[in-house]
Amino acid sequence: MPYDDSPPPTRRARPLSVAAALAAVCLTAAGCGGGPEADGAGAASPRPGAEAGSPTAPAPAGEQPEPSRTASPSDSATPLPKGPLTGRTVVIDPGHNPRNRDHTREINEKVDIGTGRKECDTTGTSTEDGYAEARFTLDVSHRLRTLLEAEGARVRLTHDGDRPFGPCIDERARIGNEAKADAVVSVHADGSAVGNRGFHVILPAEVKGGGADTSKIVKSSADLGARIAGHFVRTTGSEPSNYIGGKTGLDTRNDLGGLNLSTVPKVFVECGNMRDPKDAALLTSGSWRQKAAQGMADGITSYLKG
Fold first, then answer.
1. Any residues with CB less than 8 A from the CB of 105 and at least 6 apart, and which?
2. What is the model's pTM?
3. Which residue among 43, 59, 116, 274 is the one 20 to 30 A from 26 at the CA level?
4. How far is 91 from 86, CA to CA, in rounded Å?
């Protein structure tokens, strides 16, 4: 099945929503019960073969390759436009890596997440007909970067399909920490049962142990997550998850290395359930992915301006 991988536009389709728009959405930052899901955002010391110059992953069979892109202003000497996010740094963490599946030994190596040890990374999920979560997350992350840079933000990706696997979950966290990011968003899609639909935003629980101490970011991350959830509803038309988070669209967890090890405000966004055919139809649509990126961008901007 050919997927719509049309490149993201270079400019925003509409102005960012103001923070007041969030009040129309009944979402709170209260902790919710956790659900099973792969942790694909964190960081570790670089693993063998993680050179930046590695070739990008091939597209899955039947999928049109994503168009190549030029370096973003954040990655080059090109000046960023002046805007409401000038002077702000945002790190976008595309969940998983398209070639993790070819490096199972490396990604199964366990790393410290503060509360225990967990695999370096996972392969992620896919739709029934093979559209990989790792492919989805890179596409949405590119679109999100374009939107944020148009507002003046300096944006960094934890990876750009330019390494053979990973980064590991602890390294992903460290990238955001070392950038002293004002906000970090890890982009994902879930792999739950058919009939489970909708998006949810995962917030860090208060964790202290080993190398993890989220006490200083729990409140700010909850604010970031609630704003993203509110704008995601408004922009995409998707409903909050009907199987995680008590219909708030928010879930709090203490078992994700990418959150446990973060020292800056960070959330995961599970944009939908790839294993449900109705959600999959959205996730494989380029126009819907643009809306998802817009909703996240609006939420991030609302948080940073608030």
1. none
2. 0.80
3. 274
4. 14
Distance of CA 32 to the CA centre of its chain: 19
Q: Give me the residue label for tokens 């055919």.
A: 277
Task: Summarize the confidence of residues 282-287 as an average pLDDT.
Answer: 98
**Helical axes 286-305 vs 133-150, angle rounded to 10°:** 50
Measured distance CA(2)–CA(62) in Å, rounded = 6
**300, 148 Cβ separation under 8 angstroms:** yes
Calculate Rg over the CA atoms of the chain: 17
Longest dimension (CA), the chain: 48
d(CA 170, CA 154): 22
In the residue annotation, 63 being an active-site residue is answered as no
Helix crossing, 286-305 with 218-236: angle to 10°?
140
For residue 156, which of 178, 139, 137 has the smallest C-alpha distance? 178
* Cis preceding-peptide flag for 167 (omega within 30 of 0): yes
- For the chain, how far is it from start to end, CA to CA, in angstroms? 42
106, 119, 151, 270: which one is catalytic?
270
Q: What length does the chain have?
A: 306
| Residue 83, C-beta contacts closer than 8 angstroms, at least 6 positions apart | 150, 151, 152, 153
CA distance 95 to 257: 13
Q: Report pLDDT digits (tens) over 73-120.
A: 676 567 899 999 999 999 999 999 999 999 999 999 999 999 899 999
Q: How far does Cα 220 stand from its chain's mean position? A: 17
**Per DSSP, what are the bridge partners of residue 188?**
270
Q: CA–CA separation, 174 vs 164, rounded Å?
A: 19
Closest CA to 132 of 287, 5, 278: 5
